């Protein structure tokens, strides 16, 4: 004997869990902080393997030409981990395009460091098309010692309410 299961179909008017902000929900000066994440040796190995960044400083333990102690992490890995947080929490389903990016790497990040970021919306310019807007944000990335390791400005196209 089988039990009959009934359920209400998915109601498309229900709020979607994890849905990002539409541009109308943001304001210049609004600030957010991301989750924190500790960068592991596995993160480094996977990243350099998939990107082909097989530079000696990243693949050779104790590389004698290194300018610092520890296992340095490419700035691109730090950036992409923070962007992952932003995509998952702030613009999931509403981010339409990255239009421009200006980045400065200010301090080294090594395996074992824990990073997080502060995102500040700095400008919102509605477009003439389909309720979209160009949203600019400044993202400051910090390590576990509150050292600013990276800052970047991202200009994105975000969806709006119809």
UniProtKB/TrEMBL annotation:
Gene3D superfamilies documented for this protein: Hotdog Thioesterase
InterPro entries associated with the record: HotDog_dom_sf, MCH/BMMD
Organism: Acidovorax delafieldii 2AN
Taxonomic classification: Bacteria, Pseudomonadati, Pseudomonadota, Betaproteobacteria, Burkholderiales
Name listed for the protein in its UniProt record: Uncharacterized protein
Domain of life from the UniProt record: Bacteria
Xref: CDD domains: R_hydratase_like
């Amino acid at each position: 004997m089988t039990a009959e299961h009934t359920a209400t179909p998915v109601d498309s008017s229900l709020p979607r869990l994890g849905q990002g902000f539409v541009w109308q929900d943001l304001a210049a000066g609004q600030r957010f902080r991301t989750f924190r994440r500790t960068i592991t040796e596995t993160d480094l190995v996977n990243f350099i393997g998939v990107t082909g960044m097989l530079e000696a400083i990243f693949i050779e333990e104790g590389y004698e030409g290194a300018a610092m102690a520890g296992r340095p992490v490419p700035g691109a890995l730090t950036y992409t981990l923070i962007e992952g947080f932003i995509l998952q929490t702030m613009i999931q389903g509403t981010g339409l395009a990255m239009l421009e990016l200006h980045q400065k790497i200010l301090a080294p990040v090594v395996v074992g460091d824990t990073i997080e970021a502060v995102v500040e919306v700095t400008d919102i310019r509605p477009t003439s098309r389909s309720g979209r807007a160009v949203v600019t944000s400044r993202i400051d990335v910090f390590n576990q010692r509150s050292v600013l390791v990276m800052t970047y400005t991202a200009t994105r196209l975000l969806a709006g309410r119809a």
